[in-house]
Model the fold of this input.
Amino acid sequence: MRPVKAVIDLVVIHYISAINLNKESWSDLGLILGIFGQYSLSAHYLIERDGRVIETINPVHRAWHAGKSKYKGKSDCNDFSIGIEVVGGQFIDFETEQYNSLNELIKELKDSYPIQNIVGHEEIAIPKGRKKDPGERFRWEKLKIT
Ligand SMILES: [Zn+2]
Done:
């Protein structure tokens, strides 16, 4: 549950893949959802390589994607953020379709929530350096944040 007075004003971007389970099928949806189950992880959205967006948890509910985290002095970002997992990895370029979907999704979310900032998991994870996603291959300039 989110805290009753939580203002959902942050979007956290992650990458996820199943590369540790299967090198060839690293982007397989079933394997990735299996990882969520295995580690009790959850994000609100998953964006597949072809740009398909899957809502796994309605953002009115809290999800478990950020872990120990802090943003602008506020701890436990899961309370007040929406987590988006983009299928990819540290050394994998993201697809144009994924950026397009991300932009559409963020635009939609802004209609429903007072989103103020969009950050990468690496920026909010505690301690610093604990997380690397979405990583150097993520092209922030492709996000149309207005
Ligand atoms: Zn992450």
